[in-house]
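Onboarding guide, step 5: your first structure request.
Type a short instruction followed by the sequence, for example:

Predict the 3D structure of this protein.
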Amino acid sequence: MATDFDLLIRAGRMFCAASKFDGPGAVGVCGDRIVAAGDDVEGSAQQTLDFPDDLLLPGLVDMHAHPALRDSRYGVDPDLEFLPRGVTTVMSQGDAGALNWPAYRREVVKGRRTRVLMALGLSKFGESQQERCFIELDDANVSACANAVSTGGEAMWGIAFNTAIAAVGDLDPREIMKRGLAAAEACGRPILYGARWEEDWPLADQLELLRPGDVVTYCLNSFTQGMTDHGSVRPCVWEARDRGILFDAGHGMRSFSFAVAEAMLAEGFLPDTVSTDQYNKHVGSEPQHDLPRTLSKLIAAGMEETDAFERSTARPAQHLGLGGEVGTLAVGACADIAVLHWDDAAAPLMDVHGERRPGGCWEAIQTVRAGRLAGRLI
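The system replies with structure tokens like these:
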């Protein structure tokens, strides 16, 4: 018997920032495409899923994490650690460099169901060196990086590098920045930048070098030279935003402070994207670190719920050049879908310093990737 849809998903609430829909609704899927979406979707389907008490979103988009299988000291299998947690698209922060990009593209980009993009490491070794990204200056090879990005195909977004001591050791961070900018200019791509938080190089001087469209990550940390100073957003940070510099959460192990997030949100400075910086040390964490929990922390810190959803779907999709294809439930888009459940009894929301905030947490209960069920945690 013919059916209208391959898959029909109904939910008590459906939210799509890109199409400005927020209310009870359903999504109809044929093949790998969304063919119907809204509050009036009816029809028969080969498979129907009903979530009357839950939230249906576009598949979540993690702007900064570490999907990798090998040759990365931080890497985790995206199909195991991201996809079941509602994330259908994730960008690697430099897990591969010019030398190991071909293997990464073959094994991770093409070998996994999760959509994986790359901000190529400026270090030609990516994150494969156990000590740090840059052992010597020659690791930052401008021409090799630019050539790999230029020929990397549709999964290649831009360039990633970090100038903190943990990444460059005693090398000159200004020279690393110079080479990163040169590579980005040579291939005409943006930068995902991890700033130097040490006081030997003022943050204002670093931000002045970045260009519109470049992204500063780890923006919610509490380091001495972070985004805030005595509880207020630094003027240089506001100026950078005015010039078109973007700011990404990049939670990780060290870069989410409730005090900083609350201060920034109180001033109206919202991160452009909410990301996890999720990597292998998070595997098996209790509670498990993931994107639904990270966006829940931003909500607990004072961000409007709809802003948090947008910055985990439509906004990062747009910045990654995938607007209209992912991060949306519009008809014609790829059928990447996440269903989240609000758990009042979830483990407390905690920042990297152990500070807690009350309230529940959003948790993924179903993921659809390109029209196929991809994971269910509970």
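Each response can be followed by summary notes, for example: Residues 173-187 form the longest helix (15 residues).
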